[in-house]
Structure formats: C-alpha cells, structure tokens
C-alpha cells in the first residue's frame, strides 16, 4: 500500500458507470482501508457521442439512494460525496444547465471525452494524423468547452487525449501548445473553477499524471489554486493509486495544498 498524506480521492467510478463493474461499497471500503477521510463517487454521464450506440448515463434515483445508504453506514469513518463526471460538448450547455436544476450533486467533474463527437479512446481520431496534430485539436475542443460551460467544479484530466496517442507522451512537446493551454487555464481561473490531478496517467504508462507536470506548473504560475486529486479508479484496488507520486510532484512544484468540496464550499488541505 502506498504511503502519502493526501486523504481525499475525488475521482472514483463504480458499476453506475458503463465501464465499471465495481460496487460502490467496495470502493468506499477500499477508501477506508487506505486511510482516506474524503472520497467522491463520480460516475459517468456522457451523451451524444457519435461512436457509441447509446448514451452512457445512470439512474439518478437509484444512484442517490445507494450513495445515501453508504453515507449513513460509514459516516463515522469517511465522508462520501455523491458526485458525477459529465462529458462536456458545445451543444450540451443548456442540457446540463437544466439537468443540474433537477439533480443536486455534491461535486461535479467536467471532462472532455470527445472531440467532434468522437472519443480518442477508440483511436479513430488518430488515423492518418500525427499525435501532436490530434493533441492540439483536442485542446482546441477543451478550450471551446471551458469557455461555454459553467456547470462543473473542476476540469477533469485536461490532457486526456495523450493517453491514447500512438506514441502517448513519448515525443509530445507540451510547450508547442502552451498558447492553447494558457487560454484554457486562464479561462478556468477567471471562472472560479479548478483542475484535477488525475493519477490514471501514471497507471496508463505516461511519464506522469493528467495533466502533465508542465501544465500543473503553468496553472500555479497563472495563479490557479483549486486542485482536486483523483485516481479515476474503475476497480476498488486502484483507489488512491499513484498518490505518493502526486504528493512528490506537488512538493517539487512548491504546491502545498489540495482541494476538497463540502456542501458546495471549497476547503484546502495541506500536503507535506
């Protein structure tokens, strides 16, 4: 088991997500086992992707009932947020505005999973193109979405696309895209949003987390302060994975706090 003093995993999936078979309770129990004091379940809500036959959503009534039971059962051991990870697309601004008028979540990750209706995970966007070309097109999609959307707390895995490139981050020159990255980060900061540091990049064979260390450093330089940390676990054994690496990265960048959300309010916890 990894040793670290980060006590909140704010990106977790269960069987309410289309790509997980894990029970929410197993995720909670693993969080307790690893010494976490706060976790956020953030199951997927993605619609209108051209490459999937169906929208990937869950039954909100059943979800809130299940998370509510776990909140009560384990209230003396861990704080559980009923969260959600939504897929941001330009045509969904009004959809999400109305959706969150009906459904109240404790924490919302806004992630860009598709570009022009296509998911980099399926690799089709890379056919006949260089990785760097696709990465830049993805960042352009991220910028468009963060300018349009307001219904989220943090932007999820900012450079998600790098995970699926032919050479991943082996030859990726992040600095070539800093014009777009700066615009994304400045927009997020101006809107009072944050970014997440997602340790799944480490598990997937990248040099570091999502976003890259260079982007995290730039976020700090631009005055960004809201940083949640998440494993993006889809199985219980991945809860908190890579957090010791994240802790070392934060300390090397002279970042001493991470963020949690409680009752709609931000709280900052010290990393040391």
TrEMBL record:
Keyword DNA damage: no
Keywords: Amino-acid biosynthesis, Histidine biosynthesis, Hydrolase
Source organism, top-level taxon: Bacteria
Family that this chain belongs to: Belongs to the PHP hydrolase family. HisK subfamily.
Pathway, per record: Amino-acid biosynthesis; L-histidine biosynthesis; L-histidine from 5-phospho-alpha-D-ribose 1-diphosphate: step 8/9
Polymerase/histidinol phosphatase N-terminal domain location: 8-90
Protein name, UniProt field: Histidinol-phosphatase
SMART domains: POLIIIAc
InterPro entries hit by this protein: Histidinol_P_phosphatase_HisJ, PHP_dom, Pol/His_phosphatase_N, Pol/histidinol_Pase-like
